[in-house]
Amino acid sequence: MTATRWLSPEEREAWLALVSIMFTLPGSIEAQLQAEADLSLAEYLVLAMLSEAPDRRRRMSELATVTNTSQSRLSRIVGRLERDGLVVRTGDAKDKRVVLAEITDRGLGKVEEVAPGHVEHVRRTVIDRLTPEQVRQLALIGRVVDDAADVSVLGTVGTAD
Q1: Count of CB atoms within 10 A of residue 67's CB?
Q2: Cα Rg for the chain, rounded, in angstroms?
Q3: Domain map of the chain by residue range?
Q4: Cα separation of 146 and 153, whole Å?
Q5: What region holds the HTH marR-type domain (predicted)?
Q6: Nearest by Cα to 142 from 128, 155, 126, 156
Q7: What is the pLDDT of residue 89?
Q8: Contact at 8 Å (CB) between 87 and 78?
Q9: Which of 86, 131, 145 minimizes the C-alpha distance to 113?
Q10: DSSP of the chain, one letter per residue?
Q11: How many other CB atoms sit within 10 Å of the CB of residue 104?
């Protein structure tokens, strides 16, 4: 058995800061989206990722990856958005096994209505508090930590399709 590699005081401080972010930031963003648009963060991310996609549609498996959610959770989220007329699911004409999610005109209008307030909240709570160099570092740190989390969950880097 190997000896435990305890965190140094600086590492512990960094870890606790990350834990704090993981617990407080999503709630802050969720509250803003619920109050202003009656959307969850996950619903907003689905709509935003579809609005940015070519032809305003994505494979469900790809959408799960870009929104950092499981396929089963994504299916429930897309179902709620479908009931509200914001998204439709269709089959892929080239591959009948593939399900596509597509944002409707109403869904696109919702994103266009919500995005300014969401971006302002993100700026106020995160981006504007950092220097440009810290923003670059945060992006890099996020990618590195996310890749490591994928490895520990999946056993390999990346996600399966």
Answers
A1: 22
A2: 18
A3: 23-152
A4: 11
A5: 1-150
A6: 126
A7: 96
A8: yes
A9: 86
A10: -PPP-PPPHHHHHHHHHHHHHHHHHHHHHHHHHHHHHS--HHHHHHHHHHHTSGGGEEEHHHHHHHTT--HHHHHHHHHHHHHTTSEEEEE-SS-TT-EEEEE-HHHHHHHHHHHHHHHHHHHHHTGGGS-HHHHHHHHHHHHHHHHHHHHHHHSSSS---
A11: 18
**Phi and psi torsions of 104, nearest 5°:** -85, 170
According to CATH, what is the number of the domain 23-152? 1.10.10.10
Structure-token pair, residue 90: 């269709």
What's the angle, vertex CA 110, arms to CA 79 and CA 114, rounded to 5? 115
Task: Tell me the whole-structure pTM to 2 decimals.
Answer: 0.84
Average pLDDT for runs of 10 along the chain of length 161: 93 96 94 96 97 95 94 96 97 86 98 97 97 96 85 48 35
Q: What are 127-151's pLDDT values in tens digits?
A: 999 999 999 999 999 999 988 876 6
